[in-house]
Write a structure and sequence with these properties.
With about 180 residues, this protein is of the alpha+beta class. Helix content is about 55%, strand content about 20%.
């Protein structure tokens, strides 16, 4: 008491201050207890029906299934890449022109069919129909979009149509973007 009298501090203010601090500490204690209780309830709900060992096994099983799925995804990607490599060698660009090869025959019974790979390799199949002499079929090789034999107007038209036909390239690009 002498300390308070000598310093000029009223003891009533000290008691009020200590009381306020005690009330604040009591409120913080209650808040902490409520939070701990809520955490305990959440923990018990999480562990409900499971002991720690079986929960650990469940988590390990889930990780194992995820690893298995990742392996399957890698295998499927490899298969898709194999399919794409095969498709690059298939004929997927098509050009077709129907025409009248001879004046005496109408109805556009003659045709030129061009089949090309994505690298523009393939062939030109020309079938010319004549009512007097039958049907004549010719084939010409195409390498890199070019031929070593002179082409007719219809053959060149069908070749240009096939070269500008995107074929499966659009699908390939969308698959590569998805990876």
């Amino acid at each position: 008491m002498k300390f308070f009298d000598s310093t000029g501090i009223d003891i009533g203010y000290v008691v009020i201050g200590i009381t306020v601090v005690l009330v604040l500490l009591f409120i913080l204690l209650i808040i902490s207890m409520v939070k701990i209780r809520n955490m305990r309830v959440a923990y018990e709900k999480f562990m409900e029906g499971e002991d720690g060992k079986s929960l650990e096994k469940t988590i390990q099983d889930k990780f194992a299934s995820i690893n298995s799925l990742e392996d399957n995804v890698q295998e499927i990607k490899g298969q898709i890449n194999d399919i794409i490599r095969i498709l690059e060698k298939t004929y997927k660009k098509i050009g077709l022109v129907k025409y009248d090869a001879f004046e005496e025959v109408g109805g556009q019974l003659s045709f030129v069919l061009v089949l090309l790979t994505s690298e523009n390799d393939g062939f030109i199949l020309n079938s010319m129909y004549s009512s007097r002499e039958g049907c004549f079929t010719y084939i010409k090789e195409v390498v890199n979009g070019e031929t070593f034999i002179t082409l007719s107007k219809e053959e060149q038209q069908a070749l240009n149509e096939a070269k500008h036909n995107a074929g499966l390239n659009k699908q390939k690009n969308s698959i590569e973007q998805a990876e």
